[in-house]
Specification:
Chain A: It holds the Pfam family BPD_transp_1. The complex is a heterodimer. By secondary structure, chain A is mainly alpha-helical. In chain A, 77% of the residues lie in helices and 0% in strands. Chain A has 2 domains: 58 residues; 211 residues, MetI-like (MetI-like fold), CATH 1.10.3720. In chain A, helix 3 runs antiparallel to helix 9, helix 6 packs antiparallel against helix 9 and helix 6 crosses helix 13. In chain B, strand 1 and strand 2 form a beta hairpin. Classes of the chains: A mainly alpha, B mainly alpha.
Chain lengths: 281, 433
């Protein structure tokens, strides 16, 4: 009996040590960048992880600098992310509701097409989209990237949302239909309230996209005051990587903190979203 | 007896909306008529030039007239505008066919003595019975112009000679070259050497990165899920952190940490009296770094996923195994592993496909470097997709990049279609749910 207990304790001990090591590995880069952001000076290099003195001057500099329009970029990104989320999620919901609840000719084909189109590498289509935007005079506007982000959304989200809608019993729709509800009413009164988890998941993914996209946004947004935050950060790293590391660190913290907190709060939903995409697709 | 039907059909063939007007559906008829007027004006103005453009891609290069450059045809603009016009023509033809069908159907209804729907009733009818198609048309338009059109454009590009230095508009014209681009990519020594090299690394990378993150995630999930481990939620929350941080931030931070000169990693190795390693500048070590950093980013996702699956495995399966005298490892082998694999197989395949196109990881961390001398514009860690990016944005070899894009697409699409078929069969079998 005691031999079994020792073995058990040993197993737990080893597990805890492994977990602690993993936790350190997970947290360390975040800690490193936070510490970097409050360290005086500009250098990437520091002797110790924790700085000897703490300064918030880099955060101030972000908002008062002539070359880094951090506040402006932040607001731009917020705007683009909000609008493209609303529009994109709406489009995803329309598409997936239609393919989940209605049987029409070409439905299976439409689903396969959505899936396959989502697999195309985006970079080549960037040139065509660029020329298209130029053609309709939308270059260097936020409308352009909102449109592009939103219209791309159904390709990524439809199958996941459809998988979720499929799990909502059809008897609910039918009952409502007998009571005389129109398709719109069924959608807004029954389907939407029941699909809050998937809605949150899709909205989160859609919202985070513009904060991270530095490729397409860089191509479309030419003037500095229109940039999104990712374009700005990318520019910052490329133009003066080692010379002003601490400023970059401060910017990185300001971007990462809200998004990380969002993800942390919604982690339960992430599991739901991931698995519903996986097993019910 | 069939007067109405034929008259309505002929009228609507003559001009959109006439058939509807004849059928006394005035609002619908007027809308169609206005649509026809606009479309025909647009097509008359643009279609001839579009057809000319798509065939020739422009005929007049920029010329020097009296010491001044006179702008000639810009082949790529011509190509895109032609493409848009032709897409519009297709939509127009589609609407036209629907219009004729509709007029004929209503005409037949009239012969049978049925009441013709007024406009409000028509709208009501569409919302009730054609809801899905009416709804889908909105996202479909977006997808058509922002996804399908660019893809057609890209496929077309790969059959042209649109590349630096000799065929870049507006100075020069671009022409059709058939399969030459594919031929040089696959057969011509200078290009094929790079192509096969990059392709090999892409596949190695996709396999290694998928396997390491998947089994790493499984190990961590099992570790946390062990009997007797306390604060499971807390561990999960801590370990999910790398997934929550936006990749553009975390990967750029990683790039700095692994920096050979100033980075934190080499600094700490120095404390233990070890020499620093060329993490990002040596070919072999750059690949190792990529796999390791990818594990850091990817394990949390797999962990979350597998922890979700673990909670769905019915307890009685384990109990049954215990009754049969299974040890801990046997229980894992017989119950846990098959259940996890079965449920997550589709995700696994999608992750593999995603890793083939894992642009962020490579571009943000190494940028494809270190440079390889005998490669065409590619580095040792470049994937097909980052090579494509470099060819497009840095080298302006658009035709080559398009050809590579098509090849990537074929690889990835075949995986995902195979996968999709499988998930459907899963669903129909109803083995787990």
């Amino acid at each position: 009996m005691s031999g079994h207990k020792i073995k058990n304790n040993l197993r737990l001990g080893v597990s805890y040590i492994t977990l602690v090591l993993l936790a350190i590995a997970a947290i360390y880069p975040a800690l490193w960048i936070i510490m970097g952001s409050v360290r005086p000076g500009k250098s990437l290099y520091s002797k110790t992880l924790f700085p000897e003195s703490i300064t918030f001057s880099h955060y101030k500099e972000l908002f008062h600098s002539q070359t880094v329009l951090f506040g402006q970029w932040y607001m731009n990104t917020l705007k683009v992310a909000t609008f493209s989320t609303i529009l994109g999620v709406l489009l995803i919901l329309l598409t997936s509701y239609a393919v989940s609840r209605f049987r029409f000719r070409g439905r299976q084909t439409a689903l396969s097409v959505v899936l396959v189109l989502g697999m195309f590498p985006g970079f080549m289509s960037m040139i065509a989209i660029f020329l298209l935007l130029k053609e309709i005079n939308l270059l260097d506007t936020h409308t352009a990237i909102i449109l592009v982000y939103a219209s791309g959304a159904p390709l990524g989200g439809t199958l996941i949302a459809k998988g979720f809608f499929d799990t909502i019993p059809r008897s609910l729709d039918e009952a409502a239909r007998i009571d005389g509800a129109s398709n719109f009413a069924i959608f807004s009164r029954i389907i939407l309230p029941l699909s809050r988890p998937i809605l949150t998941y899709l909205a989160l993914l859609q919202f985070v996209g513009p904060w991270a996209d530095f490729i397409f946004a860089r191509l479309v947004l030419r003037s500095k005051d229109k940039w999104t935050i990712a374009v700005g950060m990318w520019d910052m790293v490329n133009s003066n990587q080692n010379s002003n590391f601490t400023l970059f660190a401060a910017g990185a913290v300001l971007i990462a903190v809200p998004i990380t907190i969002l993800f942390m709060f919604l982690q339960r939903l992430l599991v739901d979203g991931l698995t519903s995409g996986a097993s019910k697709g | 007896m069939d007067r109405h039907r034929n008259k309505a059909t002929i009228l609507s063939i003559l001009c959109m909306g006439l058939g509807q007007l004849y059928n006394r559906q005035f609002i619908k008829g007027l809308i169609l008529l206005i649509f026809e007027v606009f479309s025909v004006t647009y097509l008359i103005n643009n279609l001839p030039r579009a057809l000319w453009g798509i065939v020739t891609l422009g005929e007049h290069p920029r010329t020097l007239v009296k010491g001044k450059w006179m702008d000639g045809d810009h082949s790529i603009f011509i190509m895109v505008t032609s493409l848009i016009t032709i897409l519009f023509l297709l939509i127009f033809i589609g609407v036209y066919i629907l219009n004729v069908k509709d007029a004929r159907k209503i005409g037949r209804d009239r012969e049978l003595g049925k009441q013709v729907n007024n406009f409000r009733q028509s709208v009501r009818y569409v919302l009730d019975y054609k809801f899905a198609l009416a709804f889908l048309s909105i996202p479909a338009t977006g997808i058509l112009f922002f996804t399908v059109m660019p893809i057609i454009f890209m496929v077309m590009l790969s059959f042209t000679n649109y590349s630096a230095p000799n065929h870049i508009p507006p100075a020069k014209l671009v022409g059709w070259v058939g399969f030459d681009t594919f031929k040089s990519l696959l057969v011509l020594k200078t290009w094929s050497h790079t192509f096969y090299g990059v392709l090999t690394w892409t596949i190695i990378w996709a396999v290694l990165s998928t396997v390491t993150t998947y089994f790493g995630g499984m190990l961590v999930a099992l570790l946390i899920n062990q009997k007797g481990i306390r604060y499971k939620g807390l561990w999960r929350t801590i370990l999910i952190l790398p997934y929550a941080i936006p990749q553009i931030i975390s990967l750029l931070v990683m790039r700095m940490m692994f920096n050979g000169q100033f980075g934190a990693i080499n600094q700490y190795l120095g404390y233990f009296g070890l020499g620093g390693l060329p993490w990002l500048t040596d070919e072999y070590w750059a690949k190792v770094t990529l796999i390791v950093v990818n594990m850091w980013v990817g394990i949390p996702v797999s962990m979350l996923l597998i922890m979700g699956v673990l909670t769905t495995i019915p307890r009685d399966m384990y109990e049954a195994a215990e009754v049969d005298g299974a040890t801990g490892f046997q229980k894992f082998k017989i119950v846990t592993l098959p259940m996890i694999l079965f449920t997550t197989a589709p995700t696994l395949i999608m992750q593999f496909a995603g890793n083939i196109n894992n642009f962020n990881m490579i571009y943000l961390l190494t940028g494809g470097d270190p440079v390889k001398g005998d490669y065409q514009y590619a580095g040792a860690t470049d994937l097909l997709v980052t090579w494509l990016y470099k060819l497009t944005l840095n080298q302006n070899k658009y035709n080559m990049a398009s050809a590579i894009g098509i090849i990537i697409f074929l690889i990835v699409a075949s995986f995902s279609i195979y996968n999709y078929r499988r998930t459907k069969s899963f669903k129909e079998e109803d083995m787990i749910q």
